[in-house]
Amino acid sequence: MTTPRHMVELRDVCMQFEEKKVLDGVSFTVEPQERLVIMGQSGSGKSTILRLILGILRPASGSIFFKGLEVNRLPRRKLQRVRQHMGMVYQYSALLSSRNVRDNVALPLEELTDKSRAEIDKIVDEKLELVGMKDSKDLLPDELSGGMRKRVALARALVLEPELLLLDEPSAGLDPVIASVIDELIISLSEKSKVTSITVTHEMDSAFRIATRMAMLYQGKIIEEAEPEKLKQSKNPVVAQFLSGSTEGPILEGSLDAITKK
Ligand SMILES: Nc1ncnc2c1ncn2[C@@H]1O[C@H](COP(=O)(O)OP(=O)(O)OP(=O)(O)O)[C@@H](O)[C@H]1O
Ligand SMILES: [Mg+2]
């Protein structure tokens, strides 16, 4: 087999939930060690894209590749093996409420490796240290703030040393200092450990800090894709409006009138 050039590739992906079309021909590639940030309005399909890459969802049509393997066609067992090379931080953290922090982070190691208890403890400590959560090992998810849960979810995503990190709103709910720490961590993982990442975020400061490339999802399509500095100068009215957070522009046209007329 020839070495695949791309870490991830989406080729003409369409996705719909019952009648609702969410993705309408999405194509993009992510190269090794890149940090792609996907932006878009709430409900535009950003989390859906990450779930498609993980193989949790299957597209209506089109293909999704991870290192040259077509994720959406892999049999279940093979898919599970491939997934071990991906770490996912879910938008709402998705920690198991009955397990404490330590046991949540240890879970992928317990389930997917034959490492000893001592080895697992060492890795868990190391990853919790990275996200600044080592002192909270014995707490249950319910005893954590939203931002703390996010950091634990990040530690859990890192325990298998993934090649690809998928981050769904990693800095939502974090204070600005911790948010910067997480951003720096994502950057250092790609620079030092050669991790490739795809981040979905609404936080523009964070997006511009992290991204080596940015993509804007709008009405089911990637309408613009560029390096951060180029994107800032985009003439596309949708992109410009999204970056400025203005209420004037094509986004919400019509729906905003309905709100203001009430
Ligand atoms: N499992 C599902 N069943 C039915 N509809 C779904 C499902 N998952 C997502 N959707 C719909 O698909 C659309 C895109 O959802 P998605 O979660 O990908 O949006 P998003 O861009 O991540 O939004 P947000 O920024 O609010 O997280 C939404 O309209 C949502 O209602
Ligand atoms: Mg989402």
Description:
- It is a single chain.
- By secondary structure, this protein is α/β, with parallel strands linked by helices.
- Helices cover 38% and strands 23% of the residues.
- The chain contains ten helices and ten strands.
- It has helices spanning 46-54, 76-83, 101-112, 117-130, 146-158, 176-192, 204-210, 228-232, 237-244, 255-261; strands at residues 8-17, 20-30, 35-40, 61-66, 69-70, 86-89, 164-168, 196-200, 213-218, 221-226.
- The strands form two sheets. A six-stranded mixed sheet has the order 6-7-8-3-9-10, sandwiched between helices.
- A hairpin with a 2-residue loop joins strand 9 (213-218) and strand 10 (221-226).
- The termini are far apart.
- The model has no long low-confidence stretch (mean pLDDT 91).
- The structure holds adenosine-5'-triphosphate and magnesium ion.
- Residues 46-47, 91, 168 line the site of magnesium ion.
- Adenosine-5'-triphosphate binds next to strand 2 and helix 1.
TL;DR of this structure?
The protein has 262 residues and is an alpha/beta fold. It is built from 10 helices and 10 strands.
